Amino acid sequence: THTIFIDRFLATAEAYDIPTVILFNKIDTYTDEEILEVKSLAALYRKIGYDCINISAKSGLNVEEVKKLMLGKTSMFSGNSGVGKSTLINALEPSLNIKTTEISEQHLQGQHTTTFAEMFDLSFDARIIDTPGIRGFGIFDMEKDEIGDYFPEFFKLKSECKFNDCLHLDEPKCSVRTALENNDVAWSRYKSYVQMVSGDDDTYRIDNFDINQ
After folding, report:
1. How many Å apart are CA 101 and CA 91, to the nearest integer?
2. 199 lies in which domain range?
3. pLDDT for residue 206
4. Whole-model pTM above 0.90?
5. DSSP letter at 102?
6. What are phi and psi of 131, to 5 degrees?
7. Sheet strand arrangement including 126-130
8. Looking at residue 79, what is its pLDDT?
């Protein structure tokens, strides 16, 4: 799942006060280079304040840890097609036997095995919402001047900006841009923010990404 998707998910979750944990699934299939990338991403998001867990739904790695986080709650797994959401639910509750498919060899993308959101009661005092894999994630009910509030690292710096209505774009004495230039804010996060503020909902769709990037 591309960071732009992740950041849109996280911002929307922040807007509705939904606690979020980032799961890096299929960790047992990654190359050494991909492992380094995961470590970098996990460090980035942990610095912001998000919990990150490496898991493997197929091998069972850290599935019990995920189960503990779900106790007494209604949870939802979300992400692109093929990231293993349904496989993870099956690992948590094998009796559900939710249909899964492999990544499409032709398009190198996941195929939609879940076509609508469905909630299941689990045997360990939890509920799970299985959602379809998605290629795009638009935002709604967010004004431009409030999107930055849903990026926690931006929100912490907001009071230090010269202008109260700073959008962190090209305003003078912007604390977020200063932090960006000092590498205290991740460029990937800032890029996601700018795309959200500009309303650019097309360029981030998975169809427009080079799968080898």
Report:
1. 15
2. 144-207
3. 43
4. no
5. P
6. -120, 155
7. 74-77, 126-130, 118-122
8. 83
